[in-house]
Specification:
With 262 residues, the protein is an alpha/beta fold. It contains twelve helices and twelve strands.
Length: 262
């Protein structure tokens, strides 16, 4: 057993993996997508997944097969998904150079998350965006890791396929506007356009290329980002429910909005 490679999986701390330029994918489907998009470094598998692990590795990286309980002890949490793969991280795309190059020529729909703090929401939003035909995910400088273990699992590997762009600051939105993108905030606020409303559909038709901004569930969209948006769109809640619920989970809201605006 090559303990040097086994050590990659110990504790699965995303910040350490990020610093080393690595990611961890868990589960058979995510492992396949990681193998297709990245260079594998090591694989850790339960006996039931040993053959699949060898096929994924194809002789390019070490494969370690251990009982489930031992994998759980190494990973630091109960493990039931058969496979863990370690791989090199995808290339990071910076938003402004992408806007100023040919990378986004022809693109019409981008999702912007200025300060997402929950990797599971980031993963779920990326999965919806990819499924509904959106063409990129733009993350602010303090965003959680789109290639962390939980984000990858909740996206079912979508963050490896959907282009991810890193914005340096809200000022990047001014460049997007100069390049012909309209900025739309998702906020339930006075004067917001409503999903499914003819006015909202007319606005979308008029403005064409859209960057749609979603805030985190605690603080919403930061003012420095929201102030650059031309309008807001909201999802009306049931009458009389606001004393109990003020908004939807951001991943659920994103699925609705991205369907409406695609």
């Amino acid at each position: 057993m090559n303990h040097k490679h086994l050590d990659i999986f110990t504790g699965l701390k995303d910040r350490d993996l990020r610093r080393e330029g690595l990611l961890i994918g868990e589960g058979r489907l995510v492992a396949e997508r990681v193998a297709a998009a990245c260079t594998l470094v090591a694989i850790l598998a339960e006996p039931s997944a040993a053959e699949e692990a060898e096929n994924l590795a194809a002789g390019t990286c070490p494969v370690t097969v251990l009982p489930t309980a031992e994998i759980a002890g190494i990973a630091g949490y109960p493990f039931h998904r058969g496979l863990l793969v370690a791989a090199t991280r995808p290339e990071t795309h910076v938003f402004i150079p992408a806007l100023e190059s040919t990378a986004l020529v022809g693109a019409r729909r981008l999702v912007v998350l200025p300060e997402p703090t929950d990797p599971e929401n980031v993963g779920a939003i990326a999965r919806s965006a990819l499924a509904l035909g959106w063409e990129g995910l733009v993350l602010g400088p303090s965003a959680c890791d789109p290639w962390g273990r939980r984000a990858l699992r909740c996206s079912m590997g979508a963050t490896l396929t959907l282009p991810v762009y890193l914005a340096q600051s809200p000022l990047d939105l001014a460049t997007a506007t100069d390049k012909g993108w309209s900025l739309l905030a998702v906020e339930n606020e006075p004067g917001a356009l409503e999903t499914g409303n003819a006015v909202q559909k007319d606005w979308v038709a008029e403005h064409g290329r859209l960057c749609v901004l979603f805030g985190n569930e605690r603080d919403g969209i930061p003012v420095s980002w929201r102030s650059r948006c031309a309008a807001a769109v909201g999802i009306p809640l049931a009458p009389g429910i606001s004393q109990y619920i003020q908004s939807l989970n951001v991943a659920a809201a994103a699925a609705i909005i991205l369907w409406e605006l695609r």
